Amino acid sequence: MRFVLAAVLAIGVLPAKAEIAIQEVTSPNGIKAWLVEERSIPFVALNVWFQGGGTLDLPGKRGATNLMVGLLEEGTGDMNAQDFARKAEALAAEFDYNAYDDVVAISAQFLTENRDEAVALLRKSIVEPRFDEVSVERVRGQVLSIIQSDQKDPDHIASQTFDALAFGDHPYATSIDGSIESVSALTREDVVTAHRNALALDNVFVSAVGDISAEELGALLDTLLDGLPEQAAGLPPHAGYQLEGGQTVVEFATPQSVAIFGHEGITRDDPDFFAAYVLNQILGGSGFESRLMNEVREKRGLTYGVSSFLVAKDHGELYLGQVASANDRIGDAIDVIRSEWQRMAEEGPTQDELERTKTYLTGAYPLRFDGNGTIANILVGMQMDDLPIDYVATRNAKVEAVTMEDIKRVAKRILRPEELHFVIVGQPEG
To answer: DSSP letters of 346-364?
Structure first.
């Protein structure tokens, strides 16, 4: 049966276009979801996301949500992990479970003919996981192995160091995986508590794309989520940004230094967000066409790659970038980045840069809608960002509306060269 699902995925999905009809669905029990109904292929992609994610870890229990999510597919009822996997494979159903800073993301793909059985199996994993001690220890060992590996990864060290300096005692300051000490100390009861705190009806967002009607989806949701608690744990406060301009060097034996750099960013609901988005695309978000790539790589050969990006988390905003260079050249790369950050803040982009970037962004947007699963991801993400249901149809117009006056004003507002902080991991010279 898994080959049947693979064949369905291969032969076609919704066409790559942004003009899709999104319905808002409310189940008989009041669960809301967004649906794109497409009856041409007997296949459904379903996303069930729970807001909060790793930020809901209790004090001293860092990594509990991540460990809990890793255990959801490790068995339920009288099924152990192997039984659960065999059952899903027999149904040609694919389930995916992930924990992030702000969300527990669960997705499923299944054939129409197996929908009821697939949903029943998915429900048992979400609502009635076993969390047996054998599985807890096995998954704990996997998490500890990841943590130990990350301690030797310069990119991970740079990112975690920046977060720790920027966010103080907020959950964002530490890895969602937890530390060796915190994960080693977690008990089964901690996992059960994390499940109760993170998966509830008041923090759930749902999207579905494919061969299912609004009425069928409503009934499915009431079945799928029946038994979850009504309320999740309370979300943490906003994470105040605490990092000043400058640099932090973390010594690490490697011929190449890596750096994460940035300062405070902009919220997703800020009226200037689209201008900031276009601005960043010009500065460091457009690959080989960006200012940073042109100045740092193309003109000076200081790196293979440099980029910048806006990070709008639920409780904190960052404007970040990353670069890697030889230990004896990373200082030069940093100097150029600072200079370009300053130049863009003072002068803004050229008219040609603005027009080319808007053309690229509006042309590339429809290509994101290249499959049921991808569209379902977009829909549930829109809900979590509190975007309107017609956003897909209006997004490109918002990009087109960004003027040179807008972008120069926003460049002066959000680019703060004096506040740039570089975390450099390696053995940088000078």
So the answer is: HH---HHHHHHHHHHHHHH
Pair 304, 297: CB distance under 8 Å: yes
Distance CA 287, CA 308 (A): 10
Q: Mind listing the pLDDT tens digit for each residue in 145-160?
A: 999 999 999 999 999 9
CB atoms within 10 A of CB 68: 28
Contact yes or no for 94/4 (Cβ under 8 A): no
- Residue the block writes with tokens 């989520």: 225
The answer to whether the beta carbons of residues 200 and 343 sit under 8 Å apart is: no
Query: For the chain, how big is the Rg over CA atoms in Å?
Result: 23
For residue 376, what is the enclosing H or E element? Answer: helix 372-384
Residue carrying the six token digits 């959000």 = 414
Per DSSP, the three-state class of 370 is coil
- Using an 8 Å Cβ cutoff, are 385 and 49 in contact? no
Distance CA 33, CA 378 (A): 13
pLDDT of residue 211: 97
Return the number of other C-beta atoms located less than 10 Å from residue 25's C-beta. Answer: 23
Tokens of residue 370, six digits: 């290249």
Structure confidence by residue, pLDDT tens digits, 198-208:
999 999 999 99
Q: Are 156 and 27 in contact (CB under 8 A)?
A: no
Contact predicate 89/1, CB 8 Å: yes
pTM over 0.90: yes
Angstrom CA distances, 159 to 12, 119, 154, 177, 226, stand at 38, 38, 9, 14, 39
The residue whose two tokens read 């009635």 is: 128
Query: Tens digit of pLDDT for each residue in 20-41?
Result: 899 999 999 999 999 999 999 9
> Residue 48 carries which side chain, given as an amino acid letter?
V
Tokens of 293: 């790539």
The structure tokens listed for 115 are 């929908």
